[in-house]
Design goal:
By secondary structure, this protein is an alpha/beta fold. The chain contains five helices and nine strands, in the order E-H-E-E-H-E-H-E-E-H-E-H-E-E. The longest helix has 12 residues. It is globular, with a radius of gyration of 15 Å.
């Protein structure tokens, strides 16, 4: 797996638990000093349809990479732009196409800029500079149980104090995301 120190990944154990809230809080904190690129990924696994809401279903070997340009609206990719991201992308990929979709993403933006990604799947392909998991109180995605063990830090669902602590202790130095001393 390729190490990407400028990649910050935020994953979660389910839907509507605060992943996007945390992501936008981080974007708001850093957008004045960094040209942040935001990315949301969605990979529909056969046993996880419950967790994916309204996402378009695509084949296992297909992907769709879209750059969000519209700031008005409530899609997560629009919320990233409202928070201050310089670019916002959405990757929807079948289980065999995430790597191909990410190759296109990296070709478009390059490897140098700080990237914050809301994703549970990127840890299968990359070692990010930092991996934060938001743990919900409801049903946990099967894949997310494994990811909880990989996380650098786990915060509880909609725990705004915990979110604030992460945001305050987060830093981006010399092309890498860091989390200062914080208790999991």
């Amino acid at each position: 797996m390729k190490q990407i120190p400028n990649l910050l990944v935020i994953g979660g154990t389910g839907r509507n638990i605060g992943k996007t809230t945390l992501t936008t809080m981080i974007i708001e904190r850093f957008s004045k000093e960094l040209e942040l690129i935001a990315l949301k990924t969605s990979m529909l696994m056969p046993d996880e349809a419950y967790f994916h809401g309204h996402h378009k279903l695509i084949g296992a070997d297909e992907f769709e990479l879209l750059e969000e340009k519209e700031i008005k609206g409530n899609k997560d990719s629009q919320r990233y732009l409202k928070a201050g991201a310089s670019q916002s992308w959405f990757l929807s990929a079948g289980e065999n196409a995430v790597d191909s979709g990410m190759d296109v993403f990296w070709q478009k933006i390059g490897f140098a800029k700080p990237v914050i990604a809301e994703s549970n799947v990127l840890n299968d392909f990359y070692i990010p500079g930092l991996f934060i998991m938001v743990k919900g109180n409801r049903q946990i995605k099967p894949q997310a149980k494994v990811l909880l063990q990989k996380a650098d830090v786990v915060v509880s669902e909609m725990d705004l104090d915990g979110f604030d602590s992460v945001v305050k202790n987060l830093d981006f130095i010399n092309g890498q995301w860091f989390l200062k001393d914080i208790t999991q």
